[in-house]
Amino acid sequence: MAYDDLVHRLRSLTVELELLGSEFAARNVLHATDVRALIALLDRSRAEEVATPGWLAGHLGLNSASTTALIDRLEGRGLVSRARDESDRRRVTLHVTEQAREMGWAFFGPLIDRVRAVADGFSAADLDTVRSFLDQVTDAVGELRQI
Fold first, then answer.
1. Nearest Cα residue to 71 out of 85, 81, 58, 61
2. Does an H or E element contain 138, and which?
3. pTM of the model
4. How many domains does the chain have?
5. Domain HTH marR-type, which positions (predicted)?
6. For residue 73, is pLDDT > 70?
């Protein structure tokens, strides 16, 4: 079986998603890193997990100064707020605002609708296989990135 075809298809999907993200960033006057940060923070919020500047820096591969500038930009746009952690006042936590949630839905809502329309043509078992494949490929790429 030729696996390079799968890599080319995944690359094609990645390119389309990157283009969509770039258009979203341009429409909202955001840097590409701002969009990646918002996605990460929205995901973290949805999972009800605490986000900190240190976590965000590690997640995005940024240094401390770049992370501070990024958070300043997002806070200045009303998309993120900083707060002191109630259990450890030395720690700063990051919180996405309702405006960020609305912006996220403006981006992902239509995408979710399109994916749902495509997914409706597949069985539950097929979709479980697709989820498993995508999760495992994502993990494999993450491991490769760490080398």
1. 81
2. helix 124-145
3. 0.82
4. 1
5. 3-139
6. yes
